[in-house]
Amino acid sequence: MQLAWPTPGRAWWAVGVLTFAYIVSFVDRTILSLLAQPIKVDLSLNDTEMGLLAGPAFGLFYAAMGLPLGWLADRASRRGLIAVGAALWCAATAACGLAATFVQLLLARIAVGVGEAALSPAAMSIISDSFPKERRAAPIGVYAAAAAVGAGLAMIVGGTIVQLVSHRDAFVLPLIGEIARWQAAFVLVGVGGLILLPLLATILEPLRRNESAVVAGAGAARIDRFIRDHADFMVRHYVAVSFYSVVVYAVLFWVPTQFARVYGWSLGETGLRYGLVLLLFGGAGTVLGGILSAHLGKRGVAQPAIWITVAGMTMAGPLLAGAALASDGWTSLMWYAPALLFMTLPGGTAIQVVQEAVPNRLRGQASAIYYLSTSIIGNTLGPPSVGLLTDYVYGDPLRIGSALAIVAIVIAPLTSLLALSTRAPFARLVGQQATA
Fold this sequence. Notes:
Layout: H1 8-34, H2 36-43, H3 47-54, H4 56-73, H5 78-96, H6 102-116, H7 119-128, H8 137-166, E1 171-173, E2 177-179, H9 181-192, H10 196-200, H11 223-229, H12 231-261, H13 267-298, H14 304-324, H15 329-343, H16 346-357, H17 363-393, H18 400-420, H19 423-435
Antiparallel strand pairs: 1-2
């Protein structure tokens, strides 16, 4: 019996609500980068501690909880799971605004990561069960695009909120008392995000579908064995992209602080100006990478997605270094426009390479490992690396640009060489899949 699909209106409404939830999650996780400087002063923290709050505190638990929450999304109400996760991450964001110590802020950031880990596994399942296979690419693309533009929107929304907060002399909460402006920003963002809960109640929980027949022997297929048997490509590619994400996460967290600390821009000015550049050029990079890869493929270029990935990694290093070492804020912003474009160029092509190399029955597992490894390595090493350099190598918080430049110019070219070395084993692997 053929199960009825949701009406197009209901299905697309669900996509819109879920995409909005994804954007809200980016605002909640990214607001810390705008407020790093006043937090550091008020709580007497160093850059290394700020890097730990931005990276491992969020990223490790976000990545680790993704697997069990993905398992739960296959067995429980997906809409309910997202609602519980949204309530947790919004409450935890507000709790960041009540933190008075490093440990309290650390625990709140961990809770933000745990809550947000519930979103994407359940959201992708809802979207996949709301559209037939032939109409599924567009809604999935809309949801995925939120990742590319979400960070930019987070800067803009966060910058606007910070500007509104800065016009108030004091904020007093019932039973708590007066709080600092940066604390008020966290509370406003966290409480405001709770608008998701009534919106989530309006979307349809679609019937679960299993459209694909079970492939003979597929139950015995294991991604760990596939990675081991094809380590010359799989391990190299995972390592290259995971360590490249160190640069990405370092830039996403520390650049707003660079504009505020080094160039003297207000937090509101930084959020609005840099956020617009990040939104336009960072978002365009991911889309452009896919377009260029498709164009090169049509022209007969072998492994076009690898070439685009390598090009992005190669160009991102020197451009990011130029932006980080610029003498004034506006010059730096001009450098960041092309730097962010090239930095995000591999955003879609790197995972496309995995999808092309892995058999259909293993693609979901391979993608999960891809995102798990990039999140753990990128978050764990990215933000802390810059903090360690400013604290213990330069001993000067104003050298944040130099620290960013070192991370970019050292790591990005090395990862591009490693990604380039995967072309031959990738060609052999794809050839094996074609003849299997």
